[in-house]
Please model this.
Amino acid sequence: MPETFGKDLNPAQREAVEYGEGPLLVVAGAGTGKTTMLAHRVARLVADGARPDRILLLTFTRRAAMEMLQRARRLLENVKRAPTESQHVTNVWGGTFHAVGTRLLRIYGSCVGLPPNFTIIDRADQEDLMNLVRTETLGKKTEGKRFPKKGTCVAIYSRCVNSQAKLYDILAKYYPKLEEYLPELAQIFDAYTQRKIENATLDYDDLLLYWSAMMRHPEIGEKIRSRFDWVLVDEYQDTNRIQAEIVKGLTPDGKGLTVVGDDAQSIYSFRAATVRNILDFPKTFPGAKILPLEENYRSTAAILKATNRVVAQLHERYRKDLFAVRKGGVRPTFCRCRDDDAQTRYVVDLVLEHYENGMPLKEMAVLFRSSSHSLRLETELARRRIPYVKYGGLKFTEAAHVKDLLSFLRIVENPGDFPAGLRLLTLLPGIGPKKARDLMVLLQQAGGNFNVWSSWTPPKNAQELWFPTVALLKQINEPDRPLKEQLAAAIEFYRPILTEKWPLDGDSRLSDLEQLLSVSGNFKSRREMLADFVLDPPASSEEFADKPDIDDDWLNLSTIHSAKGLEWKSVFIIHASDGNIPSDMSTGRQEEIDEELRLFYVAMTRAKDYLYITCPMKYYHANTYWGDAFSTVLPTRFLPTEILNDCFESTRCWDAPNPDDDRDFRNILEEEGLTTEEWIKKQTEDLW
DNA sequence: CTGACTCGTGTTTTT
DNA sequence: CACGAGTCAG
Model:
């Protein structure tokens, strides 16, 4: 092995990089150089003669894959021997399970009855389709009952599929109140599945299911298997059962297989991810080598001391504490703030202080549990003209006007795409759900030929727009029409509809569409663009715009989930109050609380040098019709006094004078002579 | 059947 | 408040 690959690695990392073709599980704690290890391993394989196009690198985001391959490429450039064309790392198959599955399904999907022009539907489309089949199969039978909403139906369905569990068990465990609807749910799930097959529309889960099905096909399974000599899977703790089955299908005996993960960072069980995949790895692949990485390079000792204490509270855990390579450091700070305003001020002031001391904004991040938690901060950043980019939350491509526009292309790409068709058709006046459905059925019976729509007689108020609509679709459908022209034509048609639909902010929405038009040149085809927008949507409109109009320095705001795998010099975790961390919605079962704790652990371990955790002690409810004008909260239960005393500097930010109310939580305790526990009890006892 | 209306309910994380 | 589900007049 060339010397360049080893010199920055510790013995454990080096062993992982050099390890041969037997199944390998690397249990990599937070900040232990997992990405470095994987990049080196890919580079090492290529340097030793592996063909990049026979390497499969499955990661959690496309960004992670690109980053690793980038690093591998740089490492290879340092090797004397110049790589030949076939050795080029860009040929590695890298990406998420969903993206790689899509690529394979385009090639081999016909063996499982899938035409190559299938379209992929996102969560909102799934809900629309679920609604459609619900009214079709159950009609008015559900009226008057509290039948689960479409979103809940999709959630239940998805959990069944992803965990490969019986509907009955899922209902009993997660939705006990809905057990009585089991027969109806089973019925609409059947119809939903049937519908997707007929229409060549796949949801996220299908991409995995179909891939898994292909692996079981005697010929095609073998064909796919023999495409790859090496399979590397990152973030293995966040894979679900089907993904594990796919991996098993790719390398039944584990030959050439490397998986990397950390059970303490498993935060996607709501998506049916299971740590069992890591725990059972040795059983699934006998003879597997297990290598732990325990040297933490990222955080200072002071920060690591705190994160180790926090993770030790896990009810169930399988690993020892990490030890710090970086000694010393500044103790993390825990700040009780008067309210959201005080918290905002505290964070912004500190951000500016670090900035003035020479730390670029890019090296700092503000993390939060839920996307809405950053709203107040965003307002303040805008007011003070501090550039920022927000990750997580609603995606650009999920905005109604963007979905409207894309539905024109989707219906042409796949005339069976019901969610797209319904969306598009109901834009027209006089056409509601019923007519739209009938028209889609008509179109499908005609084999997707839009001429059938020409001979349809629209109702009076639809007359003006109907024939232009059909003409537009035919125009988009013309062979060899450039993608850009297709989009431009659709925007032209859609413009008046948009202006009428959103009289207030039509202009900004329109400029979003112009932006869409200008990035369309980056895509090889309509098919690729549509798939990309569903599988890997731009995380922020800034990212989408390619170059932010702010300079090249900005503050990162991110949900904790979206911060996975990233690191910054300074990290702020805001809204660390009980009810947010852990979220009120996930405090039912111990497993749920454990997952919230792992989430908090992931957030804390993103920090390299400075870590600030803030908690507003009071929340105002501007528009509450149910309850008080404000509520008093407690800091997260994951930072009990002992940990705060041992590992944190505690401070307060109370500088938002509010004459209305001076009683804070501490005062209440003092006045009433209660302990915290007693106070909580008192808050809840009335509920019974 | 569509679209404007009223009424009730509830609030996370994402490929 | 915001959104979905149900109601009812054309």
